[in-house]
Amino acid sequence: MLARPHQSLPQDFVILLFQESLQSSGQQSDGGTAQWDIKDMLNLIPDEIRDLKVSQPTEVAALRQNLSKIEEAMENFLARLQETESRISHLEDQITVMQDLVNRVT
């Protein structure tokens, strides 16, 4: 169900978007890290909502505002995800160095 102008989109919907992106943002089969951009994340919005026809100008404005909020939240989430990927990469590099040191000692 889509929110009315005085309501925001259901929290469950936004959480679902983030969960879907998290599940899809793991390692790809070729070993590379999946790259997400905002367009990919917005494609997770169900067609029924994306293709919704609204006749009231106030509803259109509210929908645009809600979508802007979702896009901003997704951008923030994507930035945090990229930061986490960077931290993981750094840790992997440290593990490799430690393994090399252990191999030299043994």
Keywords, separated by commas or semicolons:
disordered N terminus, mainly alpha, 106 residues
Can you offer a commentary on this structure?
Residues 60-101 form a coiled coil. Keywords: Coiled coil. There is one protein chain. The chain is an all-alpha fold and 106 residues long. 2% of the residues are buried. The longest helix is centred in the last third of the chain and has 49 residues, at 57-105. It has helices spanning 11-24, 38-42, 47-50, 57-105. The protein is rod-shaped and about 75 Å long. It starts with 10 loop residues before the first helix and ends with a helix. The chain has four helices and no strands. The protein has one domain.
Radius of gyration: 20 Å
Number of strands: 0
Helix-and-strand structural type: mainly alpha
> N- to C-terminal separation?
63 Å
Concise description?
This protein has 106 residues and is mainly alpha-helical. 68% of the residues lie in helices and 0% in strands.
